[in-house]
Amino acid sequence: MAAGYVAPAAEGPSGSRRGDGSVHPVDATTAEDDRVPAPGSDTAHRLGTLLTAVHDLGAGTDLDAVLHRIVVLACEASGARYGALGVIDEREPDRLARFITHGLTEQERAEIGDFPRGRGLLGRLIHDPRPVRLDDLTQAPDSSGFPPGHPPMRTFLGMPVRVGERVYGNLYLTEKADGQPFTVEDEQLVEGLSLVAGSVIDSLQERSVNAVQRQVMEGIWDVLRELLSEVDIEVLLPTVTAHLLDLTAAGAVAVVAVDETGRQQVLAASGADAAASLAARREALEHCLATGEQVDLTDPATPPAPDAAPRGDRTTVLPVHPRSGQVVALVVSGWRPPAGMGEAQGQDLLRAFSLQVTLVLDQVDRENDQRLLALLEDRDRIARDLHDLVIQRLFATGLQLQGASRLAVRPEVLERLQSAVTELDATIRDIRATIFELQHRPGQSSLRADLRSLITSYASTLGFTPVGQFEGPVDSALDDDLQIHLLAVLREALSNVARHAGASSTTVRVTVADDVVTCRISDDGVGVPDHIKESGLRNIRSRARARGGEVEIRNRDPHGTEVSWRVPLTPPG
Region Disordered: which residues (predicted)? Predict the structure, then answer.
């Protein structure tokens, strides 16, 4: 069914409206008797069948399946050949968010195209949610006809479906099977079904909200448990982004920070299209990072298939305010509120997870401060011992040797004493240099940190910051030789992207699983020319062969390149 074929008509005494605009006088007794089907009548049979089906409807657990079943039951109860349930968009109550159909063939649905959005005559039932019966919907004043490929329809019955005090949507039924107009009995049966349907939908939504709340609490507790066991930003932040990705069915979730040099650094990212999503929303991200203001966008999206659940079309960039003062943002791209949640509740969910990011950053920062303080205290002690004990003793020894040199008679003895004093002076200088170096930050970092630093260092060359994603025991599983190979491979691959790809986004995924480390570098550029595939990637291939691994290079759809470097953790032979 398409937009523009529902219209209210003149209202009769019973409260329903007839399509021909006429009023049929019915006294109160007759109207009341009409509602009691005679035993053995067709209406009684349909009512019995409907009650059995409604019982099964209440046992449903999947909202999409229940909505489709409601349409089917409405068609069976009224004898309609075609039926649909239009679900009203919560954000824009004048529009339909979904349109679940029954009776149309796949070919008819394909020919009709996009489902109606609630304009024209369909909108009349949205704005005036009361039952409507039309003998010929094509004669309704607001009828605008059907789109090409739409099957002919004449008789019509419309019924609102309420969830509590809110109109959840409307049932649209057309083409009664016997060719006759829909009757009062049909209307009464569908009205009863709509009441039960509203109750079932309300119950399912309440269960969905409870399930989402449990998921939210589980996500929060997962992060808290991780904080109690370890403080590793490379583990904690991906835990937060993965939970939020799952809850909101988002296309991508990322945490982006600005480092000391003013460059953007992707601290964590979840979702296959994280790099492309960040590149497409660069302006919104930069605005949030610069101003500390939340940015909300509605992404242009093609309408989903008629019976499909609405996919996320929102992008939200939230500022994160760690106590360190670091500039950080949480980017949630292509999301929608979880089932049963409204827009405001969905925004509250995002803010709750932005606080989780703040908690992680603060805890990591606090832990780093404690480690640094302990390290500095230890170094101060070592420096004091070196200065107060070692240097003073060496200095005293040097003075003794200098005094002894004046007593030396033989030239060779004098030369050796002076050489010893010179060596002691050099040793004192080395110790003082060591004391100075002890005031600096700790030395060797983790492999993840080295990889992250290397990825970030290409931001100025590429014009954007690549996204780095890590899975598995990256820090502990690779030996020193394999770490050197991996860093060299990543450096050469990113250099090739910078020189040849012309890309606007790049993702680096390093995965350790099943005794194999895999490094995938994918971009959305123009692809790598054949001569570059051989010459520019020769070192990458040789490093893979040296460790018994392999390299695969393939073009991405619709454009871009992916280099996959797979090497066993255990060296060959």
Answer: 1-42
Strands (E), 274-423: 295-298, 314-320, 328-335
- The domain total for the chain is 4
Gap between the Cα atoms of 565 and 496, Å rounded: 15
Q: Clarify whether residues 489 and 555 are in a common domain.
A: yes
Does 1 fall in a domain? Answer: no
Q: Across the 573 residues of the chain, what is the mean pLDDT of every consecutive 10-residue run?
A: 37 40 33 42 62 67 85 90 88 80 83 70 78 83 67 88 89 88 90 88 81 75 69 80 87 90 88 86 91 82 44 82 89 83 82 87 78 68 67 74 75 80 70 53 66 88 90 89 91 86 92 95 82 68 92 88 94 80
User: Is residue 46 domain-shared with residue 195, that is, in the same domain?
Assistant: yes
List, as one string, the DSSP characters of 425-488.
HHHHHHHHHHHHHTTSPP----HHHHHHHHHHHTHHHHTSPPEEEEESSHHHHS-HHHHHHHHH
Confidence at residue 14, expressed as pLDDT on a 0 to 100 scale: 36
The verdict on residue 129 lying in a domain is yes
- Overall pTM surpassing 0.70 (yes/no): no
The single-letter DSSP state of residue 18 is -
* Beta-carbon contacts of residue 113 (< 8 Å; ≥ 6 apart): 147, 149
Whole-number pLDDT of residue 8: 34
112 SS3 class: helix
| pLDDT for residue 4 | 36
pLDDT value for 31:
37
pLDDT at site 509: 95
- DSSP category for residue 499: I
Place of tokens 């309440």: 206
Q: How far apart are CA 538 and CA 545, in angstroms?
A: 11
What distance in Å separates the CA atoms of residue 464 and residue 483, rounded to the nearest whole number? 25
**Domain closes at, from 354, 385, 403:** 354
Q: With contact defined as beta carbons under 8 Å apart, do 121 and 137 qualify?
A: yes
Alpha-helical runs (H) found in 60-162: 63-78, 106-112, 121-127
Range of the domain at 517: 447-568
